[in-house]
Amino acid sequence: MPRSCRQCGTAIGPTIETCPHCGAFNRAERTIWVWLAGGLIVLALFLALGDIGAVLRVAGDLLRQIHAALAPAP
Ligand SMILES: [Zn+2]
After folding, report:
1. How far is the CA of 69 from the centre of ligand 1 (A)?
2. pLDDT recorded at residue 10
3. Domain that residue 55 falls in
4. Number of domains in the chain
5. First to last CA, the chain
6. How buried is 55 (Cβ within 10 angstroms: 0-12 exposed, 13-18 middle, 19+ buried)?
7. Which residues surround ligand 1, an ion (CB under 5 A)?
8. For 15-49, what is each residue's pLDDT tens digit?
């Protein structure tokens, strides 16, 4: 999916994190899918082990990390 640099608006690829035009950092879109895939795998592991407390703890951590990943870079 095409996207543009949030600093200068130049069209950049979905996996490019550094804008070739102005050098601004743009978090790659794949990041969120990596987090989600990792979370699902962890969730499946804990479900298989039957430890629901650990599942909720890991899910909470994951949600915070996803929130941080979506927040604008400082
Ligand atoms: Zn740019």
Report:
1. 19
2. 94
3. 3-70
4. 1
5. 25
6. middle
7. 5, 7-8, 10, 19, 21-22, 24
8. 888 999 999 998 876 667 788 899 999 888 878 88
